Structures are given as C-alpha cells and as structure tokens.
Amino acid sequence: MAPARGWSWALGNTRSFVGNALGGVRGWSNLASWVVAGSLAYYLWVKPARELQKEQEERAALAAASDPYRYVEKRKPIPDPQDTGLIYGKKKEPTKSDD
C-alpha cells in the first residue's frame, strides 16, 4: 500500500466521521444550517448574557463611586505575633535541634 493511499483513506474516514457527527447532511445545506444555528444561539443566549453582565458591572461601579461613606482600607493589617496563629493557644515548643 502506498503512503498516499493510506493518507487519503484515513482522511476519507475522518471526513465521513465528522460529517456523520454533524448530522449527516453534506454540502451547502449543512453549512447553512450551522450558520443559522450559530446565529440563533448568539442572539438568544450569548449576546443577552454579555449585555446583562456589562449592565451589572456598570451598576456596581456607579454604586461604588456614589457612596461617600464606604469603607476604604488605608493600612496593612498587623500580623499575629504568636507562633500558632491562634488568639489563645499554647506556643510551639522549641525543637531539640535548636539547643
């Protein structure tokens, strides 16, 4: 078997599989159906979701800018000096290698 024939056979099987997976319709009608389905999906789901997200971001930005009494952190918090990190806790025992 020549390599070119092997490649064309594999390519033909791949094309057949993809064509069957996409509904079995071939040619321009297949392409046209995918264009129509994609357009409907975009205008019914994707575009409204993006517009809603943009509106929510604009509202949040407006609310944050218009509130004069909002809390703004101006200093870094002071770290907890204890070894355990707990407010009430037993401190860590020094290990024997520290002696």
Structure in words:
- By secondary structure, the chain is mainly alpha-helical.
- The longest helix is centred in the middle third of the chain and has 39 residues.
- The model has no long low-confidence stretch (mean pLDDT 76).
- The chain has a domain of 39 residues.
- It is flat and about 75 Å long.
- Helices cover 59% and strands 0% of the residues.
- The N and C termini lie far apart (78 Å).
- The chain is built from 2 helices and no strands.
Secondary-structure element order, N to C = HH
Assess the beta-strand content as a share of residues: under 5%
Structure class: mainly alpha
Identify the overall geometry.
flat
Summed up, what is this model?
This protein is mainly alpha-helical and 99 residues long.
What is the topological layout?
Layout: H1 3-21, H2 28-66
What are the defining features of this structure?
99 residues, mainly alpha, 59% helix
